[in-house]
């Protein structure tokens, strides 16, 4: 196995071009598990921890551009106010040790449907910027991940950053685990209110081959809010609408039975999480506790 | 490949295979057996060390990634016979039984107290949630961390 | 403010560090400094690394094994199969039925087929991939009921029923006014000790071998290893290396014979260390159980009869299944006065992973069932569940259903009454709490919605030590000598310290008996006689008694010397290294001993126990320990997520030897009971383990474990040293049913299976998966699958 | 072979199948295995070896039946090793 350690983004792209399919590694929280267990032993590994560019994040024409090398811990400590949904999701990842090393770029690279950082990116319509020696391109997150552990990255491309709007309204993330810490999501739900664009972003995690945006549920609740002019009045969303939102969300899920949970349970839980996260986010929008 | 790094204040150099983890290097090449190999998956925390000041699982760090880095393991927290207050407290509180989780827990508790000198019980629990223990049921570990918080200046 | 060890009770002698004090661990400093050497840390120049090739199939015939490619690999020093087993090709705790290396047939996924020794673990792993085994895959027998049927394939020559124990007592057809029935199921729990199976075998150059190993019983290992190496026991010397927890999972052999075979074959030291995935395949687990119960009682709540049919899945090999089968039968009714009983306990062979000893040993499974039945009966009678238990609590002088008279002390009534008196945790408003104090924790699944509180009780008991005629004696050698002017006591036993604190107890007993503070507990090895197994909560009792008696013998010899020299006649004692006669110091030990050494060996045998007859009657056990628990839980009834708020417990320990160590045993045992109640299960499909990793085999974290309130009773057992009782297992027995009872109280759901999963709490029916997920397309949890290993 | 409920007597029988007999070596071993299995005490202990574990009387009876079967099946040699458990006499017999 060959180990490459580029010290700049340019060097990294050249390494990736020279060794198509070489496996990038930053936090190692996925790559190393395969290595230690003797499974996928890649020919070449490109260590990105010495590449400064992907560790930064900044504002770029009104949006946040966050390097693929930003760890979960930094997402909590540095982006807590700007991206509350992503910070909540990051807090549910593994343990302090994992969060200090694991990155959101790594989550995108592994493209696991159970990736905790993914639903908040979907709920805020994040765009993934990938680069190669041939150039860079941007792909909406919904089109970036195409199957369990599969994304559209070309063999010579690397993920450099993801771009998403700063939170303009309340955001939530909730995740089911059969233990109160260090669990892989049985299913999860990310939600973001976008009052300025008068839209609601939502995403189901770990209940389908990829994270799933429940379009019908989003559209339904956006219509309800519009009809009752609730963005301005900030009045309560009727309980029946909240329930309906939950039902539509669970209908959008495509769960399987596996060792972590049954399909029926995942469908049921997605509905409950959808209803509750919407309730909490809307209460926050209304300035009401709880 | 050659690996050069600082471990517990000493600069070390050793030959490693590319596929080895930092944990393997510490244990089998540098003779520092304090960090443990209970799961080699980042799920148990028994291999917790400092890497450039950050608490990490050594089993999930590829050896090459530690090139030129500064590593502190549990063996680096005491000076000769003088134990660190966290180590003292673990003994005093009866927080050690088989002791296989102890090194990882001591490094994690050391990290917590360096960032938050008076943690609430809930904060201690969340900070140590990545360190599994199968013998103690954690009660004495919580007592030990509270005691260490009170004695650390 | 560091708390000094408070002396809870005036110790027998003024010597500090005796019985009753929270003495610290002698191995504590190296453990907190990370310098304590565990068996996975062993290292010696020129050692090779051993690795084991394991069968991916739960049931298959082996047509042939091709090792030439592996042997040809650079860095590989040996590739061994069954042909290389020098002596007996099978081993086992009770019955020699498990192949050292499979020859004709594999009976469980993970069974050892071949061994490799290489100069680097990576080389060894790659060499395993180069061994080709021609398997004829067979249909596995995947559960105990199937194994019982006539047409099931015979997994062993004498059939699939390994053992059946019946207990018939009184007239089980006696009529009852009120009857409750129930079906209960216990999933396969794992010991999940953190230290991986590991050890180092060093050939002595004369055909013998020294093995440094993590185990619970050096001598049972030595016997089986010597048998399979075809060597006399004296040429196979075992020394205990640092043990990273055990809980029953290290009583059977794992890599002992394998490492010695590789070492003798290569004439090089060989180290073997299992990874976590291999560990799940490499040791026995707790027996899964399916149980059908029927309780009959009078309208005012007096038990009339208990009928129980217990079916245990023993897995591919016997291990200690026979004893688990018997234990379950004797404890099936619980600590209650049951006038009539018919218990059937069946132990079956299947193609699932072998099961054997785990903390609680058969009592855990039946306690879950009988305590659930008592709650069901209480509900039907409209009685308070604790009152129903108090009304039927067994007492000294009564007879257990297996005919043995209940010895004093048996404080079932006291511990139940007292656990109810322990103050309840105050109720917290659910809404607006810190996430970490809600079900689901920081995963943010509820802000108080759906949260309901539940309270549940349970009481359990078990035997301490081995039973049914097996003489698990213990041997101790005590030597008192003067070393550079100081009296020093050295304690030699082969008893395995696995973290439970036996090294402290042995030192405390020696200080109390010999009045010398400087006590050294030497490393356990097979040069001293057997100390029996570190299991069944027995070591403080049996090895403790051996140490006590050996110290008493040494003391007597000192007093003889004193009488010869000083002619003292009245009562003598030793305190702080001085001979005392009713308060007057006569002489320091140094004078009496000058440079001599006094050494005594004692082999302590507890009271004899007897096998059960065909009606399951007999004095099978020599001590019983009891514990009661109360669990307070909060359940999010919409999502089925649980937070255990508090566990209160009362336990009879006979005599507290080391207060802090006792608390550690109780809190640690409760954590394992909580794990079995809420999250721990090895999930098996068609004989294959689906979750052989800590990613999907979940044990409680610090965020899952509640605060524990405990009240200790010290009713001395007249036959035991200092009146003490075993304490290790009782906390794991009734803590599980207490938690499930609290879940039922909060949700009114049946919950007849553990571990309870969120689906069960919210009532999603358990139905088989509609279609089996295909490996690549939609299976997301790739970790923990053996097949993946073969891709490389 | 110490353990929990240790068998009072363990007998290891190895059939040295003779090639010239009517029945093939395989059949000789199978015949022995079948009759050993019927005793309820048997486990395979090697390609040609069977172990019988249990009480003194029942094991010795089974050994006799197994040896007879082996000879009838054409084998000339059956290696038999009988081992009494060290503490057997303490078994309340």
Describe this structure in words.
With 153 residues, chain B is of the alpha+beta class. Chain B is built from 5 helices and 5 strands. Chain B folds into 2 domains: 74 residues, Roll (Ubiquitin-like (UB roll)); 67 residues, DNA polymerase, domain 1. In chain B, strands 2-1-5-3-4 form a 5-stranded mixed beta sheet, with helices on both faces. In chain B, helix 2 crosses helix 5. Chain C has 3 domains: 141 residues, Aldehyde oxidase/xanthine dehydrogenase, molybdopterin binding domain (Aldehyde Oxidoreductase, domain 4, 2-Layer Sandwich), CATH 3.30.365.10; 172 residues, Aldehyde oxidase/xanthine dehydrogenase, a/b hammerhead (Aldehyde Oxidoreductase, domain 3, Alpha-Beta Complex); 331 residues, Aldehyde oxidase/xanthine dehydrogenase, molybdopterin binding domain (Aldehyde Oxidoreductase, domain 4), CATH 3.30.365. In chain C, the strands form 8 sheets. Chain C has a 7-stranded mixed beta sheet with strand order 3-7-1-14-11-12-13, with helices on both faces. Chain C is of the alpha+beta class. Chains in contact: A-B, A-C, B-C, C-D. At the B-C interface, helix 2, helix 3, helix 4 and helix 5 of B face helix 1 and helix 15 of C.
Brief overview:
Chain B is α+β, with helices and mostly antiparallel strands and 153 residues long. Chain B has helices at residues 22-29, 85-93, 102-115, 121-127, 139-151; strands spanning 2-7, 10-15, 48-51, 54-57, 70-72.
